[in-house]
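Input sequence (181 aa), recorded before submission:
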Amino acid sequence: MFAFGRMTNCRQMSLMLVVFVIEAVDLACDWFFFSQLHLTDDEYITQNLHLKWLVLGFAVLGTIAFVFEMINLRSEVFSDRGSCLYADTVSTVTTWVEDVPQICLALVVALHQRSLIHWIQFVKAGWALVELMVRGVGQCLYSCVISERHNKALNCCVAVFKFTAQLIILGCTIAVLIHLV
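Predicted structure, token format:
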């Protein structure tokens, strides 16, 4: 295995790989959604240019959050000193500052467009559902089994904040899918 300070096990490598794939696909969907918004001639989008710039801004923020989350998780998995922040805390913050705004913007676009801008809207909404399921299970496992925090009440607090964000994402995702169909 990779030895960057300490030996990693299969669970740690799997965690790193799953988080990387989930976040990379989500990030790609965000950027592709922006590119399609940028290219569309949909009347609502052309009249509300601020939507394009908001989607772009959150895609940039998502890219920064992705890089930080991967560096933090890499430190946790491969380093003797561990990560600078707990992985679930970083995940919760990135969900609130990037995923929630992105799906809310996708909902605004879906509600106001006259026709489907691009198939990426379905992919983005579908991937959000996949991400919710994987992250939900991961959050439960992390909070209940894996976390090395001494304050278990903080685990519950972070889990509640993450769960609340996931409920918002789920509601918006279902609304996007219903509206697009």
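Checked by second reader. Residues 1-6 have pLDDT under 50 and may be disordered.
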